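From the shared-data thread, chain only:
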Amino acid sequence: MASNIPTRRITRQFRTTAQKDNENATARVARPMTRSKPPSNSGALAPASTATSRVTAPTLASRAKVVGKDENKVDHTAQGKRKREALGEVTKNTTKNIAVASKDSKAEKFDGVVIKTATNVRQPLRTVAGPTTRRSARGGVPVPSQIHPLEEVKEDVREPVKNAPVYVQPREAKMAVEDDRVFKKRRTSSDVPDDVKSFDEEDQHEVAQALELGVESEPEADPNGDDWDDLDADDADDPLMVSEYVVEIFQYMKQIELTTLPNPDYMSCQKELAWSMRGILIDWLVQVHARFRLLPETLFLCVNIIDRFLSARVASLAKLQLVGITCLLVAAKVEEIVAPSVSHFLHCADSSYSEAEILQAERYVLKTLDWNLNHPNPMHFLRRISKADDYDVKARTVGKYLLEVAALEWRLLATPPSLVAAAAIWLARLILGNDKWTPNLAHYSSYTESLLIPTANMMLNYILKPIRHESFFKKYAGKRYLKVSVWVREWALERWEEGAQASLAQDLPKLKALNRTERARQEAADVLHGGLEDS
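Structure, as tokens:
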């Protein structure tokens, strides 16, 4: 063990001696300003390292600093040049030296380009960090900095901002010209289906001609007339459609739908609740319903149970979420094949309540409703009416969106589910350009067109209001639902102002004339396109 100790010392001394010839070998720097060791003093440091013991020996950088103070043989020009090149600070005094050095080698020329770029990047930091002067490496004489003042940079940035309000004036001028919102030019969007046609204000004379022909002169289709077709006869071979009893089933549903309607003014009996709180609760339930991917019938039954329970009992604000999550649990047990468990609903409620509280609330809600859960779901009526519409996917998707609008809109609480479904299909067809309420649609919905306009008008006014229920809007803004919440709102805002109270009874003739003009134009374009293909 004793023989190995001198060997280790000799080896470490040899390593220390070998580092003196390498300029960038010293990793420990005494100060950030002295990154490199002066080459003129490297030879005088070698004997001192061998004579001094390892414990008390100073470092190479500290000895270089001491020798540099004692002897005045240091080349300050070369040392200062290396410091400035390392820190990226090149003054006007050394610009000529760099240009001369660039003639000798290509590396110096490349370093000069990099230094110039680095200086421009570091300008904001230098301006914020300290004064605009620095001291040179020779004698501490203040040298003016080459960094631009901050005021000049601000002026350069603010110049293009002055021309920003130029885009406001054309929009205001355009809005001033528009007299009738019904004939406003629509925006083009890639998300709008092909069935929703745009129009120009130049075509107002064509709409006027259609109005002169008498759009209102057409008689309404009678639900009890003889002009309808028996569509149930085609389903005689399908036992799931129960075509033998389907008429009696829907007649019974129309009878009991009036017995399961809530009190439309029950919020006046609630001390701590308001209609806006109900909207927030249902919007949150729409999010939970979409997360579990439950059936649409589950959501509508849940809303009906909530309204009927609050019509009979007074609930506090602290228990409102408990009422909502309990009613969704009850509706899921009725409509779903595999309903989520109580623990799943607790997770969505952020564990605000315990499992025992939900089960106790479930018993209380069912006892209050007298276990009456046979609410006719509006989805059943929607599917029935969609059969007369040849199962149009776009119209039925817009109809589902309008059904949930009716669930959020408290003003439609007193409306029967069959009327809500019929008004949703009618407004969806009007948006898509199919404004004719055929005898089949009137028969299978059991409503005339004039009876649907007030309910559809409330749905339209909800769409015209600013977006209040984000979860509901985002749900129907996805591709799964054809982004109907986006382009239906665009369709409405192109014809009426946001927040305005639309009147379909007054604007319906213009809308119908416009749709028929667009259909005639589209048919002419199709005939022309077909003739070009044949030729």
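DSSP finds 24 helices and two strands in the chain.
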